[in-house]
Write a structure and sequence with these properties.
Helix content of chain B: 25-40%
CATH topology of chain A: ABC transporter involved in vitamin B12 uptake, BtuC
Radius of gyration of chain A: 22 Å
Radius of gyration of chain B: 24 Å
Shape of chain A: globular
Helix content of chain A: 55-70%
Largest sheet of chain B: 6 strands, mixed
Strand order of the largest sheet of chain A: 1-2
Largest sheet of chain A: 2 strands, antiparallel
Structural class of chain A: mainly alpha
Number of strands of chain B: 22
Low-confidence stretches of chain B: 496-504
CATH superfamily of the largest domain in chain B: P-loop containing nucleotide triphosphate hydrolases
Distance between the termini of chain B: 42 Å
Strand content of chain B: 15-25%
Number of helices of chain A: 15
Distance between the termini of chain A: 10 Å
Order of helices and strands of chain A: HHHHHHHEEHHHHHHHH
Low-confidence stretches of chain A: 1-20
Largest interface: A-B, 39 and 55 residues
Number of domains of chain B: 3
CATH architecture of chain A: Orthogonal Bundle
Oligomer: heterodimer
CATH class of the largest domain in chain B: Alpha Beta
Strand order of the largest sheet of chain B: 6-7-8-3-9-10
Number of helices of chain B: 18
Chain lengths: ~350, ~500
């Protein structure tokens, strides 16, 4: 308590020597370092490659990060309450498989498929939350277990095969259902924005969800209480907050967001592909953690998460356009994450304590 | 012993950036003597300790250990030279995952010259030597996590003593100990004195200081402003020197209770305890005093709905009151400023206004959306009222000093009207000036509600309350009007029950 910074600020306040809006270089670097880096990257790529700055390229970047971005926004909610959700990747692939199963095997329409996916996401999130809050299983372990369980579960109905129209079912018959056009539109439809057919539906979903979760976490009392529960659960409890309920809700949000990601994935692929979605978890978690560094927040925040996802997207797109081979992508993402984490924890350690 | 100083400091200065924290400290420590260092929060005590123990380097000035200059670059170097420090946070001093024996010889396990392999028998043998020398009656095979805080403290001190130090610095060692445990620590310090160690003891607690001090040194704004070593020690003078103003002993005009607000009938908070009954009226401040561990916190938290009573009833404004959760209690107008702000009060990542509005978010929200302007207005009013030192209401709580953090946690519950305000050790780790600010604000705002304060320090109770209840063995054993207190009876009530416990 009696730390050096405490004394410094106390002395400063007494002397009132420093106007409060003037920031030191260090504070400037902490606050705007990552955003300037992002701008710098964009400038660099637009000078170094052709066509990087076109609206189509910008939309392409957003599209490439839309699904991981949505998952990352969900996992941000669990980070806010001091938890973690490792099951988001498998929730997304499970809901992709479920969508395919509902339409192809059960021959239902798009609405039923979407509702089934959302229900799966909410249910898994609820179970995660209950296990963590009431069975006292640590969050990482509980969601790791759930991840494992879902990876297995999504393969059982089809005996481990991908789902597509015309596939052979376990009982020998052939699946006759098809992906409905309405469902596929979620992955393929493009809205007009100045240019015809510019913005894909998935990007619209990403932007809407990002604004929603940002507003929710920053401006509503529920978001505030979730931060309180994550920062000091006992203090939140002594302030009359139902901490467990908030934590469970965070996992439900995370599950629902992941299932929305899964819906978009299914709509993009047009089939239930058991091999896809492997990287979703790592990419999403990376984006959320990179977000800690944005604006010197040093804590999970929706705006940072969105910027983190965008950062990875810009970097990969730029490098691809500069003909850097695809197999270096994970390396690049990992390097960005490590640097962002160092930035967060080394530079911000002073403020964060 | 005698008058020769083993440790001498002269002209010590230290600044962090533009802020001078130490402005020329001069201090002598003598062998076999306990020098108590007093200072308000932010006076520079911790910085002085850190310079002496090698965590920080002084900007200017000299330190002499014996007749050699002493300027340690690391804590390890200071320790080797013979200056050891036991820090405030007990768990910094011990490793929870290891047993007592390993903890006692921990420094030797990683010092130069120790082998790669770990010989449990040798560790035991060395540990036993250390323990015997210090008269440490703790099972060497016990895991540190199973020990009480006091025992952990003893282990940390015993290990520090194994270096045969000439100077021992104890930084608020009793802040989380009960009085029984503290007494064991004092006995250990007596043994250190007898061995000729110069002890620098830092504390806020008058009872510690009265028990231990051979000499009192007052630190204010980074300089020594008073040294008191004539017997009997001038405690009041030392306090006044440290505060730089004469606060003296506040005599309060005792108020009588107004309309009854809150009553408790036959409340039982622990198995086998006698039931508690009390009545609280509007406008009065009632202190509940008693030793650590007599059930004060249990009672406070029961009234706030954290624990359910075993039996008994409560009434608030004539209506039955039986909260199942803190949320329920808050809605009924019963607020608790809980003990130990770090774990139950503050949200370190929140700024001042977010911390203050925490329990009342619905009242600061429109359809779930926070109204920040009104939060900030409320916070600004409290900052002015309680003289909270900060740059603005947007300061992170982690940047405030302990006393100011405590003011924020108290202010939180003053932002809204309550029927019953309960405070559990609201003056813990708070300097006297901040304590007076808080107490004055409580008295000033008390007229509409009943106020119940749980305090271990009797002085604090005498300074703030209109009525004093004494608690012992999970029940209330005495009641005094704070006008003509029969101190002998009061002390007997505090202590008398304790003797019975020891006897039974």
């Amino acid at each position: 308590m009696n730390s050096q910074t405490a004394r410094e600020s106390a002395v400063e306040a007494k002397a009132d020597a420093r106007p409060k809006d003037r920031l030191s270089m260090r504070e400037l670097a902490i606050r705007y370092g990552f955003l300037s880096l992002l701008v710098g990257l964009i400038v660099f790529f637009s000078l170094a490659t052709r066509g990087f700055t076109s609206p189509q390229a910008a939309v392409f970047i957003l599209q490439s990060v839309s699904i991981t971005g949505i998952l990352a926004l969900g996992v941000t909610a669990t980070l806010v309450v001091g938890g973690f959700d490792l099951s988001i990747g498998s929730i997304a692939t499970s809901s992709m498989m479920a969508a395919a199963y509902v339409m192809v095997v059960l021959e239902q329409n798009a609405l039923v498929a979407v509702l089934a996916c959302l229900a799966i996401g909410a249910l898994v999130g609820l179970i995660n939350g209950l296990i963590i809050c009431y069975m006292r299983v640590p969050d990482l372990l509980a969601t790791l277990g759930m991840m494992f369980l879902l990876i297995g579960l999504q393969r059982i109905p089809t005996e481990g095969r991908s789902i597509a129209t015309g596939m052979t079912l376990p009982d020998g018959s052939t699946a006759e259902g098809t992906f409905s056009q309405a469902f596929l539109a979620l992955g393929r439809h493009r809205f007009d924005l100045f240019i015809e057919n510019l913005v894909p539906a998935s990007v619209v979903v990403l932007i809407v969800l990002a604004i929603l979760i940002w507003f929710f976490l920053e401006y509503t009392r529920f978001g505030r209480m979730m931060y309180a529960a994550g920062s000091n659960a006992r203090a939140a409890e002594f302030a009359g907050a139902p901490v467990k309920a908030y934590r469970i809700w965070a996992y439900v949000i995370s599950g629902v967001f992941a299932s929305i990601g899964g819906i978009l994935l299914a709509a993009r692929l047009g089939r239930g592909d058991i091999a896809s979605g492997n990287n979703l978890l790592l990419d999403a978690v990376a984006a959320a953690l990179i977000g800690f560094a944005v604006l010197g927040a040093a804590k999970p925040n929706a705006f940072g998460t969105a910027i983190g996802a965008l950062f990875v997207g810009v970097l990969l797109q730029g490098l691809t356009m500069m003909n850097v081979p695809y197999y270096t992508q994970d390396f690049v993402k990992g390097a960005v994450l490590v640097i962002a984490l160092i930035f967060t924890f080394a530079l911000l350690a002073r403020n964060a304590r | 012993m005698g008058d020769t100083a083993v440790f001498r400091i002269a002209g010590l200065t230290k600044a962090f950036g533009p802020n001078a924290v130490l402005r020329g400290v001069g201090l002598d420590l003598r062998a076999g003597e306990v020098s108590v260092l007093m200072g308000a929060n932010g006076a520079g005590k911790s910085t002085l300790v850190k310079v002496m123990s090698g965590v920080h380097r002084a900007d200017r000035g000299v330190m002499m250990l014996g007749d050699k200059p002493f300027s340690p670059a690391t804590p390890a170097e200071a320790m080797r030279a013979g200056v050891v420090t036991v820090h405030q946070n007990i768990n910094d001093g011990v490793v929870g995952a290891l047993d007592v024996a390993s903890n006692l010889v921990l420094d030797r396990l990683n010092g130069a010259g120790s082998g790669i392999f770990f010989n449990p028998r040798r560790v035991r043998r060395e540990a036993r030597e250390v323990a015997e020398r210090m008269g440490l009656g703790i099972d060497l095979g016990a895991e540190v996590t199973d020990l009480s805080l006091a025992d952990r403290q003893m282990v940390a001190i015993a290990r520090a003593m194994s270096h045969e130090p000439q100077v021992m610095i104890l930084d608020e060692p009793t802040s989380s100990l009960s009085s029984n445990e503290a007494e064991r620590l004092f006995a250990l310090i007596d043994r250190l004195k007898a061995r000729g160690v110069a002890v620098l003891y830092i504390s806020h607690r008058m009872s510690d200081i009265r028990r231990l001090a051979d000499r009192i040194v007052s630190l204010r704004d980074g300089a020594i402003v008073g040294q008191f070593d004539e017997k009997p020690l001038d405690y009041e003078g030392a306090v006044n020197a440290m505060l730089g103003q004469n606060l003296g002993r506040h005599s309060i005009d005792v108020r009588a209770a107004g309309t009854p607000v809150f009553s408790v009938r036959d409340l039982r908070i622990a198995r086998g305890a006698n039931p508690i009954s009390m009545d609280l009226g509007a406008g009065e401040i009632v202190a509940v005093t008693g030793l650590v561990g007599v059930g004060k916190t249990q009672l406070a938290e029961t009234l706030f709905g954290i624990h359910a009573p075993l039996s008994g009833t409560m009434e608030l404004d004539g209506k039955p009151y039986a909260p199942k959760t803190p949320a329920r209690a808050i809605r009924d107008g019963v607020f608790l400023v809980a003990k130990d702000r770090a774990s139950t009060g503050i949200v370190p990542e929140f700024n001042i206004y977010e911390n203050m509005s925490l329990p009342f978010l619905p009242r600061f929200a429109n359809a779930g959306v926070m109204r920040r302007r009104s939060e900030r207005q409320t916070a600004r009013a409290q900052i002015a009222d309680l003289k909270i030192v900060c740059r603005s209401e947007r300061d992170d709580l982690a940047t405030l000093s302990g006393g100011n953090q405590q003011k924020v946690t108290v202010a939180r519950w003053l932002t809204q009207k309550s029927r019953l305000l309960i405070l559990d050790e609201p003056f813990q780790g708070v300097d006297i000036a901040a304590r007076h600010d808080i107490a004055a604000k409580l008295r000033e705002s008390a007229s509409e509600r009943a106020t119940l304060i749980f305090l271990t320090e009797l002085d604090e109770a005498l300074e703030t309350a209109d009525r004093i209840l004494v608690m012992s063995e999970n029940t209330i054993v005495g009641e005094h009007r704070n006008a003509d207190v029969d101190m002998d009876r009061l002390l007997a009530e505090v202590a008398g029950q304790r003797l019975e416990v020891a006897g039974s």
